[in-house]
Amino acid sequence: MVLALFFGSGATALVYEVVWAKFLAQMFGSTIYAQTVVLAVFMGGLALATGFLAAGRTALRSPVKAYGVLEILIGIFCVFVSGAGSRNQ
């Protein structure tokens, strides 16, 4: 069950990567700049999360539960951002 959820999470992340790249390509006028921003934000997020966890600031009792909560928060954020973007068009 957990592996299926991880798979679904990864597939959704890839879809949102493409959506953000298309959205930013309209804003910047170039897909190269859009892909660069998406990649930089992704790598920056990985670096921040790794630094936060490596610093020993958190001792998670249930990492899978924490991951699930983060996924839900990201999903809520994406719904609000998608709704805001569709109103502007």
What does this 3D model show about the protein?
The protein is mainly alpha-helical. It is built from three helices and no strands. Helix 1 packs across helix 2. The longest helix has 27 residues.
Q: State the helix count.
A: 3
Return residue spans where pLDDT drops below 50 for at least 5 consecutive residues: none
Distance between the termini: 39 Å
E-strand count? 0
- The average pLDDT value, as a whole number, equals 81
Helix content: over 70%
Q: What is the string of helix and strand elements?
A: HHH
Choose one word for the global shape: globular
What is the strand content? under 5%
**Largest sheet geometry:** none
Helix-strand makeup class: mainly alpha
Cα-based radius of gyration, to the nearest Å: 15 Å
Summarize the helices and strands and which ones pair or pack.
Layout: H1 2-28, H2 31-54, H3 63-87
Helix pairs in contact: 1-2
Salient structural properties:
mainly alpha, 0% strand, globular, 89 residues, single chain
Quick overview:
The protein is built from three helices and no strands. The protein is mainly alpha-helical and 89 residues long.
